[in-house]
Design a protein that fits this description.
The chain is built from one helix and ten strands. It starts with a strand and ends with a strand. It is 6% helix and 35% strand. It is mainly β. It has one domain. The radius of gyration is 15 Å and the shape is globular.
């Protein structure tokens, strides 16, 4: 399953821009990637980082985030553009724990983790998943065409 969390998309249209933008580059604010244990079940009602519960093995900020315009392929007029989110690959250091079979991206802000919005969920085979870490590094290499399209 690959999905943009519906609550984040809904918030984009209904609320002010704070805490939802994906192009933040400060030391604390920005988009983070979480390695998620196979005990987590995706739910369209999930909205904040706390909804992941104790299912996060490790978390790391995505550096050099960008939201760029890209052409929508296959039969759509070439003037139609769609935003694509991208960022640098992630290297998680010395990861331990059970089987990791998913990634969750979330928008970190300076508030409590109950205000960090879940953005994107990925649990298909790829990006080196699934993996059972044994204290080594876990490297997430994003697709060259971007992480996801909104």
């Amino acid at each position: 399953m690959v999905a943009v969390y519906p609550k984040w998309k809904q918030a984009l249209f209904q609320e002010a821009q704070a805490n939802k933008s994906l192009d933040q580059t400060t030391a604390q604010d920005g988009v983070y990637c979480a390695l998620v244990f196979n005990t987590y079940t995706y739910n369209t009602a999930h909205q904040f980082y706390t909804d992941l519960g104790a299912n996060v093995a490790a978390s790391l900020q995505i550096t050099s985030p960008t939201v760029a315009q890209a052409l929508i392929p296959t039969g759509v007029p070439p003037t139609t553009l769609a935003p694509v989110f991208d960022g640098n690959d992630c290297t998680f250091i010395s990861v331990t724990g059970g089987t990791i079979n998913a990634l969750a991206l979330y928008r970190h802000n300076s508030g409590a983790n109950s205000t960090w919005r879940l953005v994107f969920f990925y649990d298909n085979t790829g990006y080196g998943l699934p993996v059972t870490p044994a204290g080594g590094n876990v490297i997430v290499s994003w697709n060259p065409s971007g992480i996801f399209q909104i």
